[in-house]
Amino acid sequence: MTALIRSIVWIEKLAGIFENLIDRILEIKEKILITLIKNRWPAWLSANKLTGSRLIVALAIFPWVILVDYRGNEVLAIILIVMILTDLIDGVIARTLNQTSALGSLLDKIADKTLVMPLGVIEFWSYDPWLVGLSLFGMSVILFLAFVKFFRSSKTVVPENTAGKLCSACYSLAIIIAIWPDWQIWADHLGWGGFFVGMASIMQNFHRHFLAGK
Fold this sequence. Notes:
The chain is 80% helix and 0% strand. It is mainly α. Helix 1 (2-37) packs across helix 3 (74-96) and helix 4 (102-124) packs parallel to helix 6.
């Protein structure tokens, strides 16, 4: 356990070193997306509707992968890729069209975890139960802190930091890659990367928004 804590602290420091560089890359990505979205995005499709649709699809995927063999299922992979792409743009849409809200940010976190958690359990439980258990714990903490911040701080949310974005990217790629059994080991590595970076994200947010009284 001591080694695990040291690893998380080390990852937190490493995430801080690369945070500025990654933020710069994300800033460039956002500028490109804003250019593509502004004056072109249909007014009827709000950011919250896009997030809500991702949540609905995530809930529908869970029984599907239980009833149907998901391994090697290219249709499932395509659906997951589309859902992840919507996660990349819904925040940009909200900011570009002045649709940002604390509720939308909270729904975004819920939709992200709902997409990753159930499928991750099915794909990884027999292969690496430690990864599943620790990841579920970490995601539960993230959601708990998000709800606490939302209901106790005038409907505000804990903003996503760079480590949190990297965590989501690792987990999202992991559940896609794990669809193919031959790539399970690489998916497992990505999953562990997502876990450690996610723990660093939790520690950063806890320090910045709870211990600091923000």
